[in-house]
Design brief:
By secondary structure, the chain is of the alpha/beta class. 55% of the residues lie in helices and 13% in strands. Bound molecules: nicotinamide-adenine-dinucleotide and magnesium ion (MG).
């Protein structure tokens, strides 16, 4: 494993150079503001009729249409939704400076060959391992979110140094930047969010809630047990791994964890995880998502509405309205 830290960064490589940030959502806003606060020359590329344009302006940033923003940029970062990056690349490609770099926060479009970059361009990845809000907050507090770094194409001979300086500019080098490949980042990122972080965790929560409610327990009590308290456990895991969690939970909880955890995540679930990973590796998942997008994302919206209509959402909203310290 290779990890880069601040001492490995050559900040001079970006001195006087312009960085174009395409998209101003979760990652785009965090990267643009952090890079600007790091003293770099940042321009944001957005659709003039989009909702992000006034936001970026209000944050004091220089905003242009994407094809204008990329002119003279040493690095162009694609921070729009993954599904629009291929057509956006076609739009800006003629204006990308000869020998400049294109940068991604997730390898999807390069790995699944949705974008075939021009031969003179460096192609790099800086993928923060956290949502944009955290990338911004950690930076403001003098910390950083760890990042992955990869170089798909080193046309200039300086691609790694350029990407490292960018990672430093968003605060990532403070926490450590681990070397990977576009393939490893893309496949592990998709697997993590599907099997564990988003898909796995939410299905576990909802299935636990349904099990208790169907057995006749109060939904409010089931909500506290299965959703609310998850944060305490995740914080312990984040801070000190399994060991810290076991230090802070009761002996009874620890014994129950050890005997019942493997009954829940059994061989069948592990096989399902392998199947999900295969679909990611052989491109099935990517093709389905691309097809769904070409069909107007109707099925995606239907499933999303169904998810948000679950009773746990109603119970949760009512209980959270009592917790006036929460941002909701
Ligand atoms: P997002 O959905 O939050 O942001 C979308 C932004 O793109 C908005 O500002 C929108 O106005 C703009 N946009 C949409 N279509 C556009 C177009 N055609 N032209 C110009 N701008 C357009 O996106 P995100 O979640 O920040 O994801 C950006 C990238 O970062 C993706 O590659 C994603 O995989 C990656 N990533 C995201 C996270 C995360 O926490 N959200 C974490 C790591 C990596
Ligand atoms: Mg992810």
């Amino acid at each position: 494993m290779q990890m880069y830290t601040e001492k490995d960064v050559d900040t001079a490589i970006l001195a006087g150079k312009r960085i174009a940030i395409l998209g101003y959502g979760s990652q785009g806003r965090a990267h643009a503001l952090n890079l600007k606060d790091s003293g770099l020359d940042v321009v944001v590329g957005l659709r003039p009729d989009g909702a992000s344009w006034p936001k970026a302006k209000a944050d004091g940033l220089d905003v242009k249409e994407p094809a204008e923003a990329v002119k003279e940029a040493a690095i162009t970062a694609f921070l729009t939704p993954d599904m629009v990056q291929a057509s956006l690349y076609e739009t800006v490609q003629p204006n990308l400076a000869e020998g400049s770099a294109i940068l991604f926060a997730h390898g999807f479009n390069i790995h699944y060959k949705r974008i075939t970059p021009r031969a003179d361009l460096d192609v790099v990845l800086i993928a923060p391992k956290g949502p944009g809000g955290l990338v911004r907050r950690q930076y403001e507090e003098g910390h950083g979110v760890p990042c992955l770094i990869a170089v798909e194409k080193d046309a200039s001979g300086k691609a790694l140094a350029l990407a490292l300086a960018y990672a430093h500019g968003i605060g990532g080098a403070r926490a450590g930047v681990i070397a990977t490949t576009f393939a490893e980042e893309t496949e592990t990122d998709l697997f993590g969010e599907q099997a564990v972080l988003c898909g796995g965790a939410t299905e576990l929560v909802v299935a636990g809630f349904e099990t208790l409610v169907e057995a006749g327990y109060q939904p409010e009590v089931a909500y506290y047990e299965c959703m609310h308290e998850l944060k305490l456990i995740v914080d312990l895991l984040h801070e000190g791994g399994l060991k810290k969690m076991h230090q802070f939970i009761s002996d009874t909880a620890a014994y129950g964890d050890l005997v019942s955890g493997p009954r829940i995540i059994d061989a069948h679930v592990r096989q399902n995880m392998k199947d999900v990973l295969s679909d990611i590796q052989d491109g099935t998942f990517a093709n389905n998502w691309i097809k769904e997008t070409e069909n107007g994302q109707k099925e995606y919206r239907r499933m999303m509405n169904e998810d948000l209509a679950h009773p746990i959402e109603k119970v949760g909203a009512a209980l959270r309205s009592q917790m006036d310290w929460l941002d909701n």
